[in-house]
Please model this.
Amino acid sequence: MVFNKILPPVLAITALSASSLFAATAYHNQVGFLTKGQKQMAVVGAEGKEIVFKTSSGNEVLKVTAPEAQIWVPAGDTAASLVDFSEIQTAGKYQAYIDDEPIGHPITIADNALEEAGKASIKFFYFQRASTALEEEYAGIYARAAGHPDTAVKYHASTGKTDLNATFSSPKGWYDAGDYGKYIVNSGISTYTLLQLYQQNKAYYDTLKLNIPESKNDVPDLLDEIRWNLDWMLTMQDDDGGVFHKLTTKQFAGTIMPAKANAQRYAIGKAVEATWDFAAVVTLASEIYKPYDPEFAEKCIIAAQKAHNWAMAHPYEVYEQPKDVGTGSYTGAADWASKLWTLIEMYRVSGDTNVVAAIKKLPINNKKAKLQSWQNNYMLGIFSIAMSPDAFEPEMVDSANAIIINMADNFMKSLDNNGYGIALDKDDFYWGSNGVAANKGMVLVHAYILTKEEKYLNAVQGIVDYILGRNPIDKSYLTGYGVNPVMNPHHRVSQADSIEAPVPGMIAGGANASATDCAKQYNNANAVAKSYYDNSCSYATNEVAINWNAPFAYIIGSLQAIATTGVTYDIKTPVNAKYELTTIPAARNRIKYAKPQEGKRLVIRGQKVQLEYTDKNGIKTYFSIGGKKVR
Model:
């Protein structure tokens, strides 16, 4: 893998100071533009001025008059002109000028302009591997000793196990974020997103090499990387079919390398959120891996059915963070949405009438539509229906398509009178805003696949441009890429490895106007997109996470794949597997479970006393002692 040269912080600041001497400031993608793709920059202080684009040798190739400057609310009150230079369609290096003074950074245009950054965003997952050493051949200067073998994992009392001295083996998997935990709920959406990236772009990813240990085998590298996490997920299923919520220590490790983080690790919790997410992911995997490893595919579909049956029998077993555990909780996920997602995936590969009957009892409509996240997987099932219409009933397909197009069109509305040309609103800038941006891009990609309307793909390009530099702080949020990349992420390996530059290919969480950590001093309610601090002390703006990298890998990879192959996913592609679900109970033999008692009780959550109210359906709601509803 080739890493782009990174400017030291002092030089980066000098470059920015120099550009600020001129009347105009330009913000644009710092990595590169596709030859035939949309190319735009946001220029402040240039309205009505002539912007000249020249080659690296000084030849003028294009003149553009900067249009009327417009406000993009997240950027504050500084209006920008959205300058389009898509007319340049010759590969090369360019620079924009006003009155012979350069603005912005050097511009790269190439047929494969996004390929290295896209590969890096996937290679990130290799760098997050647990239970293995990263060898220099594959990791370069980021080679490290193995950590967390996870061959003697204990059961926490919250799993329901009685022998708490017993251990089991649960190796592999990806470190979730800046910490060393492994979490099923967050792995669910992340793994699904990468599986769909492959599924929808096979012609591109079948031959793309990532320089990982498995690169010499006959399986696409992307699938090999995903398999590392799937192998771990399968070890988290209990004998009864339920799935443990997470595998972590009781408290977060300090800022040390994996090999030195030797505290006891535990399987913690067993609940429906993790179980449904697990079932959905391994069901999709059972189809995708069937041509490469039929035995593994069979193992996945059997595991999915066991998980389904456990979750159906334990609908009220939601995860609650134990009081002696301080690692990521991942509580509050919409388990009904994960259930729907699972049923959709299972019906897609089976056509089972019992499954479709269960789907029809759950809502598939715009009222329930919400941008996908680990908290709500509703859209993941919607994507699967829309991408395989022949596997579902027509009314389901119509509803799914309408949901995607409606959501995408709502995103497009934010482009009106928008000087930065980014489909993001003021309300999008909370914890993990770059993940929000990338997930919006994923919806837009699906809208493009369904309609072939270029406006959706251009909006995706705008989001990629935002993450790579077309933002009001001139920051490439992808480590290792761009002139002014993130240098100090909240990521234990990058903080502890004594290497100046962080591990490449990581997406920082991004601007967060409600940060409560050291970034609080940069919170700006009037310019939320500037509420960011490139410092490892800021988990609220500068942590990395697999569920932010996965959708970015999806959108940048989709753009590059479509440009390289000239092919967009064909929704008429037949499902590659058709399983007989042998253990799903028929409707007449429905699983019996005891409903919880309705009532109230005082509980301790997050070291605070709260009132827990359980309604007649077993849904729990929490209130402070003062009566305020809390999550």
Summary: The longest helix spans residues 294-313.
